[in-house]
Amino acid sequence: MTRDEIIKKNLDLHAEWMKYVFEYPDVLDKIPKGAVLVILPEDDKELYDENYKVLEENKKKGIPVFIVTMKTPKPQITNIEVVKVQSLSAL
Fold first, then answer.
1. What average pLDDT does the structure give for the chain?
2. What global pTM score does this model have?
3. C-alpha 47: how far from its chain's center?
4. Axis-axis angle for helices 45-60, 3-23 (nearest 10)
5. Banded model confidence at residue 89, pLDDT cuts 50, 70, 90
6. Separation between Cα atoms, residue 10 and residue 15, nearest integer Å
7. Residue 53 domain boundaries
8. Strands (DSSP E) along 1-91, which ranges?
9. Which stretch of DSSP H or E encloses residue 14?
10. Strand, coil or helix: what is 1?
11. pLDDT of residue 87 exceeding 80
12. Total structural domains in the chain?
């Protein structure tokens, strides 16, 4: 897995985590001050292993780690269709 793939997949996981946080903001109270958030995807062994390395590195440094396990979010297909584009000068 390339670095770019790791970053993209982690951004997708983070976006899903943020949706969860907006629904359940009290979960933020459980995160220790100064902790690093590490998301371990249950259904992507390769990314799980990469993120677990981050967890271990931070533990070795004595940095608290907040671990979240979740399934990889399914890609969303947008139903947006551009019907008409109009410039401001035409208004």
1. 89
2. 0.77
3. 12
4. 80
5. low
6. 9
7. 3-90
8. 36-41, 65-70
9. helix 3-23
10. coil
11. no
12. 1
The residues near 39 (Cβ < 8 Å, ≥ 6 apart) are 10, 13, 14, 17, 51, 67, 68, 69, 70
* CA-closest candidate to residue 68, choices 13, 29, 9, 4: 13
Give the pLDDT of residue 47.
Answer: 97
76: CB partners within 8 A, 6+ apart: none
What is the H or E stretch that residue 57 is in? helix 45-60
Tens digits of per-residue pLDDT, 14-35?
999 999 999 999 999 999 999 9
Q: For 32-42, write each residue's pLDDT tens digit.
A: 999 999 999 99
The answer for residues whose C-beta is within 8 angstroms of residue 66's C-beta and 6 or more apart is: 30, 31, 32, 35, 36, 37, 38
